[in-house]
Amino acid sequence: MNKDDIFDVYTDYLITSFSYTTATGLPTILDDAVSHDQETRFLSQQDLTSKERWKVIKKTAREIESEEGVLIFDHTLEEKSYSKEHDLICSHYDHTVGRAVKRINGLNCLYYANEVSLPVAFELVKKPIKCCDIKTKKEKRKSTITTNQHESETLY
């Protein structure tokens, strides 16, 4: 089975599963048409870029395309309060608690048209620059680009 076929089968498996998904679950339901090793190699490959993701979903996007279609950007914060801080896991402002907390910040982009939401991009926000807050004298982290720049670069 080639890479594109494994991608299609694996995403269908995730979408249609009604219980926990496991690395051995897919080979089991497919009578070993896809091996656990094939699945593991597929999942451990290099991350898809937004450009590569677009190649996968472009046909579907064109099918639902509409003049009333919109792009929706959303930041998703995943709590990591007990993890060691670095570029990816660091303080991000969380509007639900009204303060900065240690999280992973993911930027999602959906195209919504004709009552269909299609994920078109996902990027993790990194803050590699360390600096000091003058008022609090505490170390902070900053991204190399603004949120608006990040959103526009996510699409290209």
Topology:
Elements (H helix, E strand, L loop, with lengths): L2 H14 L8 H5 L6 H8 L6 H15 L5 E10 L9 E6 L4 E15 L2 E10 L3 E4 L6 E4 L4 H8 L2
Antiparallel strand pairs: 1-3, 2-3, 3-4, 5-6
Helix content, binned percent: 25-40%
Taking the sheet with the most strands, its summary is: 4 strands, antiparallel
Order of helices and strands: HHHHEEEEEEH
> Low-confidence parts lasting 5 or more residues at pLDDT below 50?
none
The helix/strand class is alpha+beta
How many angstroms separate the termini?
Answer: 30 Å
Question: Mean pLDDT, rounded to whole units?
Answer: 83
Number of strand segments:
6
Q: Please tell me the total number of domains.
A: 2
Number of helices: 5
Sum up the overall morphology in one term. globular
C-alpha Rg (nearest Å): 19 Å
Strand content: 25-35%
Task: Describe the fold and architecture.
This protein is 32% helix and 31% strand. It has 156 residues and is α+β, with helices and mostly antiparallel strands.
Give descriptors for this structure.
about 160 residues, 4-stranded antiparallel sheet, two-stranded antiparallel ribbon, alpha+beta
Task: Kindly summarize this structure in a few lines.
With 156 residues, the chain is α+β, with helices and mostly antiparallel strands.
